[in-house]
Amino acid sequence: MLRKRMYWILQLGGWFAWMLNEAVVYTNQYGWHWAWLYASLANISLAIFLTHQYKNIIKVNSWQDLPLFSMLRNHFIILCLMAACLVGLNLPIDQYLLGENFEVQLSPFIITQYLFNFMKPLAIWMLIYFFFQYSKKQLAMEREKNQLERAIQETEGKVLRAQMNPHFVFNALNSIRALITEDPAKAKKGINQLSKLLRSSLLTERKKTISIAEELDTILDYLNLEKIRYEERLAWKIEVPKEISQAQIPPMLLQTLVENAIKHGIAHSSKEGLIQIKGEIASEMIHLQVINPGHLKTKGESTGIGLLNSQNRLQLLFGETAHIDLKPLDKNHVLASVTIPYISETLA
């Protein structure tokens, strides 16, 4: 409604300004006559009628989508026809109102001069209208592109989250399987732990992000589950300040790093290994670290689908400002670090 109202305001205002200029020219040359007012109103009405019909024609026939040559040809034909209509109205009016002052003898040259005189404002109107239509089309295409990109990102995010759950369950079941024959009681306890973890996973499955506090609760359940398998070989220390506990991260982001720390660190050690989880905030960015004993044999060595998916999910949610780094901390420890923007509200 606002666009339609603006269109009519510009139509009336623009053609009134043009006819006012024409009336001033005629008045300066031939003197004031009330007939100029009626002639101006007739011209304004006809010009609005013609341009409005032009707008309807190009809209119905989708001229904006035509090849360039066809579009220019059609617009030029319409421009000539509209100008001819205004010439057909104004020549008799000029002959009648000016009377003996109308000394110009009609000829093809004079008619062409009249025609070009009216083509100028019509061409300006058409250019302005074409520009706004083109801008409107570009904005619509940009919105469609953004909606498509968001839909693609949402689909990719769902696929990545769907891949994470089987990966996590596989690791947990491996831990329990090792205990079935050795210690059935511990295996039963492990199944209970796994059930609790899966319940937490289902609750967060449809969320793009959860708080660090929620993620740490899940990690503690997971570490307690793994503690059944590794016993004194596994210990952990969590140093995450309360001020970032509500910061949002993708579900199972830290969980994946802890899984890798156990798989590539604790599992290959015969003595007690400490997993450290740290967090801090600096310059509106959250920095999270998972440190585990072990060695990173090759720089940039892949640690499986879990870490790869985590990297992709960070890119989808936060763009280039978020990233995961995996590197040796010293000769006996590996550091996995995550940097993401500080966001306190859940992304639905």
UniProtKB/TrEMBL annotation:
<keyword id="KW-0175">Coiled coil</keyword>
<dbReference type="Pfam" id="PF06580">
    <property type="entry name" value="His_kinase"/>
</dbReference>
<feature type="transmembrane region" description="Helical">
    <location>
        <begin position="111"/>
        <end position="132"/>
    </location>
</feature>
<dbReference type="GO" id="GO:0016301">
    <property type="term" value="F:kinase activity"/>
</dbReference>
<dbReference type="InterPro" id="IPR036890">
    <property type="entry name" value="HATPase_C_sf"/>
</dbReference>
<keyword id="KW-0808">Transferase</keyword>
<keyword id="KW-0472">Membrane</keyword>
<keyword id="KW-1133">Transmembrane helix</keyword>
<feature type="coiled-coil region">
    <location>
        <begin position="134"/>
        <end position="165"/>
    </location>
</feature>
<feature type="transmembrane region" description="Helical">
    <location>
        <begin position="72"/>
        <end position="91"/>
    </location>
</feature>
<dbReference type="InterPro" id="IPR050640">
    <property type="entry name" value="Bact_2-comp_sensor_kinase"/>
</dbReference>
<keyword id="KW-0418">Kinase</keyword>
<feature type="domain" description="Signal transduction histidine kinase internal region">
    <location>
        <begin position="156"/>
        <end position="234"/>
    </location>
</feature>
<dbReference type="InterPro" id="IPR010559">
    <property type="entry name" value="Sig_transdc_His_kin_internal"/>
</dbReference>
<keyword id="KW-0812">Transmembrane</keyword>
<protein>
    <submittedName>
        <fullName>Histidine kinase</fullName>
    </submittedName>
</protein>
<feature type="transmembrane region" description="Helical">
    <location>
        <begin position="33"/>
        <end position="51"/>
    </location>
</feature>
